[in-house]
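Design job #97: recover the sequence.
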């Protein structure tokens, strides 16, 4: 039970102050006039002023509340190094037991795991959430057990009691760290990429070390070792070996005594892209499809198109001087002999042999294909005739032989069973809503090699794909693909078909018919196998620690097999299926928890100082706990302090007026009357 006097003014305080000034002025006048009753009048004025202040006697019945001490336990990955986890657990148990043994004290233990998405240690966020669930008037102290490597110090709440930091580091701790300073997300094939990295030692590292080994591996292949200076920024020139995803692994060997080797390896995944694609379009007889090819190729700003077309055949004799037909001679020899290897794709659109390109040029193109080039034949009626481009050097690389028959009737192009599994034609039905329009002409051919992915009239081969040596060849046995582009009978997926066809020939990794790759989401990977076969075997997954796991693949669509695997570790995973191999890195390129591993109070020092708290090394034991007054230093040699808050809960409340109206009226009337009588008697 506690008692106190409270005031509840009946008028604004400023108005009461004004009345007090008037009373004082009246008393001064009374004294100056020599009135004998001025003391009694003064008492009457004081009673009135006191009554206007509304004094009351208040009695409270209070229930004392216990003090709350928050213990924040860092359970992030960096706390798993050395004996930090055990040290933290033992210290937390000891502190909790000591605090609970005290009178009127409660303990709240807050555990802080790793934040998702490589967010690090969000200790201040967890502390703020815990404080929001407790009355601030009861919090007597906060004790944080951590290595000090927290990543949300800017979110520190206003702590109404001392904050103490008990760190888990040891005096002899040291660590070697590999850090990539800049890593581009993509790079141009054939161009040099500049990457910078640094190898540093932190803590009580061995002295006298100036150079350290650095191993570099690309796509899981055998690594190459270099010697690099310690503590200096190193610039590495790099040229990506292939398009698509390139997985680069940089590592420096672990050294006995360092805290962890988790930060000795960094994975970088860079997407290799082509800068410019060079395409040579060779047109024979002009027809509406020529514009289709030009529009397709010119619509892509990354394509450099050279269009070679014959407008005046040699047999045409009209008497026009050659010098008036062109300003310069067309560089035929340079294109087809000297510069042919510079092209990524050559397209022959309804071209027939007319004596302009001799056999030596065509033979050079055949060798260009076998050495890794790509040629697409868009066949028209000329392909079936005696002047067909098929006759000659190209016979060895074209995947079908013309029968000399041209089919002139309407038919609906359709994807074959094999084409439904091939990435060039798979899913074309979903790319174009509605019924496909007909084509009106097809060149009859007999397949001699390759794969038929589309058929036409009477199920005859329409689109054939083949690999020749290191290169690729495609034959489109019709010159009516442009009908789809013009919307004839509803049109069709002409743009998507030709785009995929061109990119498959230029060896885009996304369009390989036999491929194995994985897509990562956090620590989960989706393994994808594309194949023309009906079934595939299980995929073999090799984890960063060397464990080998087999997972079966399920067919999710024609030619596409998938499985999902949750990787237990951060690092490089190797995938194998049949003759296909791939690598993928799971987890962040540089886990934030292992960027800095030496325990330090640097991040928390400002918050500790603001609350008069202290910093203590747990290797010296668990400090004692004392009560200290608010505002006083809360840490000393071998002890830390908490501030008792004296919080309470009010059970009941009673109030009684000290100056009730009837008493005020009686006192004021009596005093004024007594003063008047005294002055009258005098």
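Job complete. Output follows.
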């Amino acid at each position: 039970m506690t008692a106190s006097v409270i005031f509840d003014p009946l008028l604004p305080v400023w108005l009461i102050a004004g009345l007090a000034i008037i009373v004082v002025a009246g008393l001064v006048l009374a004294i100056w006039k020599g009135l004998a009753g001025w003391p009694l009048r003064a008492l009457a004025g004081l009673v009135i002023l006191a009554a206007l202040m509304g004094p009351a006697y208040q009695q409270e019945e209070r229930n004392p509340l216990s003090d709350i001490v928050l213990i924040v336990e860092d359970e992030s990955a960096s706390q798993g190094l050395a004996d930090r986890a055990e040290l933290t657990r033992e210290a937390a148990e000891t502190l909790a037991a000591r605090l609970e043994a005290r009178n009127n004290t409660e303990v709240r233990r807050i555990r802080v795991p790793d934040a998702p998405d490589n967010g690090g240690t969000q200790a201040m966020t967890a502390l703020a959430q815990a404080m929001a669930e407790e009355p601030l008037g009861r919090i007597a102290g906060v004790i944080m057990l951590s290595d000090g490597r927290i990543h949300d110090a800017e979110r520190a709440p206003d702590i109404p009691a001392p904050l103490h930091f008990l760190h888990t580091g040891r005096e002899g701790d040291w660590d070697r760290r590999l850090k990539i300073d800049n890593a581009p997300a993509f790079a141009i094939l054939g161009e040099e990429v500049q990457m910078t990295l640094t190898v540093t030692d932190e803590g009580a590292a061995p002295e006298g070390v100036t150079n350290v080994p650095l191993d570099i591996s690309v796509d899981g292949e055998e690594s190459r070792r270099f010697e690099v200076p310690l503590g200096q920024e190193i610039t590495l020139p790099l040229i990506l070996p292939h398009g698509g995803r390139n997985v680069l692994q940089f590592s420096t060997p672990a050294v006995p005594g360092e805290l962890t080797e988790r930060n000795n390896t960094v994975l970088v995944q860079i997407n290799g892209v082509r800068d410019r694609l060079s395409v040579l379009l060779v047109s024979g007889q002009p027809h509406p499809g020529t514009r289709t090819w030009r529009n397709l190729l010119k619509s892509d700003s990354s394509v450099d198109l050279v269009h070679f077309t014959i407008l005046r055949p040699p047999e045409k004799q009209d008497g026009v001087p050659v010098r008036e037909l062109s300003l310069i001679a067309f560089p035929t020899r340079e294109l087809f002999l000297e510069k042919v290897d510079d092209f990524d794709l050559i397209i022959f659109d309804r071209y027939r042999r007319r004596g302009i390109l001799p056999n030596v040029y065509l033979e050079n193109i055949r060798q260009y294909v076998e050495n890794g080039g790509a040629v697409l034949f868009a066949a028209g009626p000329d392909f079936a005739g005696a002047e067909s481009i098929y006759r000659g050097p190209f016979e060895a690389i074209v995947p079908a032989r013309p029968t000399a028959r041209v089919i002139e009737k309407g038919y609906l192009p359709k994807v074959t069973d094999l084409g439904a599994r091939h990435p060039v034609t798979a899913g074309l039905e979903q790319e174009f809503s509605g019924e496909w329009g007909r084509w009106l002409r097809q060149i009859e051919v007999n397949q001699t090699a390759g794969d038929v992915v589309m058929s036409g009239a009477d199920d005859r081969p329409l689109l054939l794909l083949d690999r020749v040596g290191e290169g690729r060849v495609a034959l489109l046995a019709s010159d009516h693909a442009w009908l789809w582009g013009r919307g004839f009978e509803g049109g069709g997926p002409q743009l998507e078909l030709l785009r995929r066809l061109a990119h498959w020939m230029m060896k885009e990794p996304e369009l390989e018919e036999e491929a194995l790759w994985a897509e990562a989401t956090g620590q989960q990977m989706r393994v994808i196998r594309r194949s023309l076969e009906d079934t595939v075997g299980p995929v073999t997954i090799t984890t960063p620690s060397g464990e080998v796991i087999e997972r079966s693949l399920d067919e999710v669509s024609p030619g596409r097999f998938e499985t999902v695997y949750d990787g237990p570790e951060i690092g490089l995973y190797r995938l194998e299926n049949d003759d296909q191999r791939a690598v993928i890195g799971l987890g962040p390129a540089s886990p934030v928890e292992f960027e800095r591993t030496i325990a330090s109070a640097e991040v928390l020092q400002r918050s500790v100082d603001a609350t008069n708290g202290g910093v203590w090394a747990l290797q010296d034991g668990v400090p004692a706990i004392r009560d200290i007054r608010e505002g006083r230093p809360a840490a000393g040699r071998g002890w830390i302090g908490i501030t008792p808050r004296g919080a309470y809960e009010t059970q009941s409340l009673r109030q009684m007026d000290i100056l009730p109206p009837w008493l005020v009226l009686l006192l004021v009337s009596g005093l004024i009357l007594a003063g008047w009588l005294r002055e009258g008697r005098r």
